[in-house]
Amino acid sequence: MIEIGNRVRIEVIEKMAAGVLGAIVMALGGGVFAILLIVIGIAGIVLKKGKIFKGVLAAGILCCILPAGIGAMMVSLVTHSYIEEVRYHKEYPIHAIFDDDLDSKSQKEIGEWIQKYKDKINQKDEGGYTVLDNYVCSECVQAKYLKMLLEAGAKRSERSFQEDGSSFFIIAGATRIDQETEKGFEKNQIECAKLLLEYGEDINHKEPSHQNATPLMAASGFLEKEEEKDIRQMQKDPEVRENVSEKMIQWMKEHGADPKLKDDTGKTAKDYYKIMISK
């Protein structure tokens, strides 16, 4: 067994066992049905009740073969998935731990894993992205795990930085509030912003791939030019409308975000703010 950590080892074995069990259940279920058809078919032929029973017999035989074939295919697919998962955890250990449900693991366990494979902290996955790229761009960034990555020296790739924007831009833009926003969400986002500032992120960085918008514009409701009409329409619906985080905007202004900067369309953060709060 390749060393991939006890929890991961258990998870992949559970998946494999589930697949094998599914194949067995399918085979047994199909086998019982097949035997029933065969018995009916033979009885009909013996009693000379017509050609239809020959068809029933053939169907019964087919039902014996199909479950076995499907079961074998399921076992093969699950085994392949198991092998691939083990390979991925071995080849990309940092990515693997952050691809999983972090809340199912202890903070200590994650920290130890990161330290164990610290030399691979900036390894790019098969798509060409680092773990920090993927984590920052996810919808579930938590300050405590972001801190672990930054402390270990995690960096963004140039590709993601250009395509998706700076970490500040992404985190600020993700701080939208609606009726289902979880308690503590704003606090977590601001904690993430504090970490980014501490580790040298530019709070006024302009994004070339996003109309040269700034993180403050992102926090204030930045949207691409072609999206403005749709967003204005959406904001009229109280059930789906989003609101900006006043706390995030205030924090950013207090820590150097320049509200006077304009993007390529000539808008400032305040202009986007007005669009977001309009009804």
Report on the structure:
With 279 residues, the chain is mostly helical. The chain has 13 helices and 2 strands, in the order ααααααααβαααβαα. It has helices spanning 6-46, 52-91, 93-99, 107-116, 131-136, 143-151, 158-164, 167-173, 185-198, 215-219, 228-234, 246-254, 269-277, and strands at 176-177, 243-244. Strands 1-2 form a two-stranded antiparallel ribbon. The longest helix is centred in the first third of the chain and has 41 residues, at 6-46. It is globular, with a radius of gyration of 28 Å. It starts with 5 loop residues before the first helix and ends with a helix.
The helix tally amounts to: 13
> How would you sum up the global shape?
globular
User: Low-confidence stretches at least 5 residues in length (pLDDT < 50)?
Assistant: 1-9
Distance between the termini: 59 Å
Strand order of the largest sheet: 1-2
**Strand-residue fraction?**
under 5%
Kindly state the number of beta strands: 2
Provide the gyration radius in Å.
28 Å
Percentage of helical residues?
A: 55-70%
Nearest-integer average pLDDT = 79
Major sheet characteristics = 2 strands, antiparallel
Order of helices and strands: HHHHHHHHEHHHEHH
Given the helix and strand composition, which structural class is it? mainly alpha
